[in-house]
C-alpha cells in the first residue's frame, strides 16, 4: 500500500509528494523545496521514518516543481526522471526565475527520460504513466490502480484546472486530456495535484466548472 506525505513548498505553494510502501523504498515527486529550511524539512521526514529514496520524478518541469531537483539528487544520490517532452522546460528554469525575480535557482539535469507510457516502479509498487499535456508540453500523471490514486501535477485541481498561458500550454489540449484521460479513471481515484487539496475524479466530473464528465 502506497503512503503519501505532502509538503507545501516555495513561493508558489507547490505540493511536493513523498510516496513509499511497506518496503520503505520511497520516491520524491516534484521536489519544490526552495530554501534550506524546506530542504531540511524534507530530509528530516525521510530520516525520521527510515525511508530509502530510490527515485526522483517530475510530472513536468515548471520551475516551482523543480527547485529541489539538484538538492535531492545530491543529497540522496539517486537518479532524476523527467518526462521526455519537458527537457527544454527544465533547461529554461533559470531564465524563468529571472523573469519572476526569484534568486538562487540551482539548475538540474535529468538522469533518465520518461516515455509517454510505461511504468515507474519502487518497492512492491507500480505507477502507470499517463500522458496528459496541455498545461505543459510533456506533462505526465502517475497512477496507481491498486491504491486508487493519481499524482496529477498541474492538470486537474479541486474545482479548477492547470493554467495554459505558459510556453507550451494549450487550453483545448488540456480540456481534451482531462476528459479523455483523467476522467477515464475510476471515480474513486484520489487526485493529488501540484497545488491545493486533493480531490477525486468523481467529484470533478460532477462539479468541475471547466470540464464535466
Supply the key terms:
single chain; 213 residues; alpha/beta; Metallo-beta-lactamase, Chain A; 6-stranded mixed beta sheet; 30% strand; hydrolase; metal-binding
In N-to-C order, the SSE pattern is EEEHEHHEHHEEEEEEEHEEH
Strand order of the largest sheet: 1-2-3-4-5-6
The CATH superfamily appears as: Ribonuclease Z/Hydroxyacylglutathione hydrolase-like
Shape: globular
Number of helical regions: 7
First and last CA, distance:
28 Å
Please tell me the CATH architecture by its name.
4-Layer Sandwich
Mean pLDDT: 97
Largest sheet: 6 strands, mixed
CATH T-level topology: Metallo-beta-lactamase, Chain A
Précis, in short:
The chain has 7 helices and 14 strands. With 213 residues, it is α/β, with parallel strands linked by helices. Keywords: Hydrolase, Metal-binding, Zinc.
Structure explained in plain terms:
The structure is a single chain. With 213 residues, the chain is α/β, with parallel strands linked by helices. It has a single domain, classed as Metallo-beta-lactamase, Chain A (4-Layer Sandwich). Helices cover 26% and strands 30% of the residues. It is built from seven helices and 14 strands. The chain has a six-stranded mixed beta sheet, with helices on one face. It has a six-stranded mixed beta sheet with strand order 7-8-9-10-13-14. It has a two-stranded antiparallel sheet with strand order 11-12. A hairpin with a 2-residue loop joins strand 11 and strand 12. The model has no long low-confidence stretch (mean pLDDT 97). Its cofactor is Zn(2+). This is MBL fold metallo-hydrolase.
Amino acid at each position: 500500500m502506497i503512503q503519501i506525505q505532502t509538503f507545501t513548498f516555495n513561493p508558489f505553494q507547490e505540493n511536493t509528494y513523498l510516496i513509499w510502501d511497506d518496503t520503505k523504498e520511497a520516491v520524491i515527486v516534484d521536489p519544490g523545496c526552495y530554501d534550506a529550511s524546506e530542504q531540511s524539512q524534507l530530509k528530516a521526514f525521510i530520516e525520521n521514518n527510515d525511508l530509502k529514496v530510490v527515485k526522483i520524478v517530475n510530472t513536468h518541469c515548471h520551475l516551482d516543481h523543480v527547485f529541489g531537483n539538484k538538492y535531492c539528487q545530491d543529497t540522496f544520490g539517486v537518479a532524476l526522471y523527467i518526462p521526455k517532452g519537458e527537457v527544454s522546460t527544465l533547461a529554461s528554469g533559470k531564465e524563468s526565475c529571472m523573469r519572476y525575480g526569484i534568486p538562487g535557482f540551482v539548475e538540474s539535469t535529468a538522469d533518465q527520460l520518461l516515455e509517454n507510457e510505461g511504468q515507474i516502479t519502487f518497492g512492491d509498487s507500480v505507477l502507470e504513466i499517463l500522458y496528459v499535456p496541455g498545461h505543459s508540453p510533456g506533462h505526465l500523471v502517475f497512477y496507481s490502480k491498486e491504491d486508487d490514486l493519481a499524482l496529477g501535477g498541474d492538470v486537474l485541481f479541486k474545482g479548477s484546472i492547470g493554467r495554459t498561458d505558459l510556453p507550451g500550454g494549450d487550453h483545448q489540449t488540456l480540456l481534451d486530456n482531462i476528459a479523455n484521460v483523467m476522467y477515464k479513471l475510476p471515480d474513486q481515484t484520489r487526485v493529488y495535484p501540484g497545488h491545493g487539496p486533493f480531490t477525486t475524479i468523481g467529484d470533478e466530473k460532477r462539479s468541475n466548472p471547466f470540464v464535466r464528465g
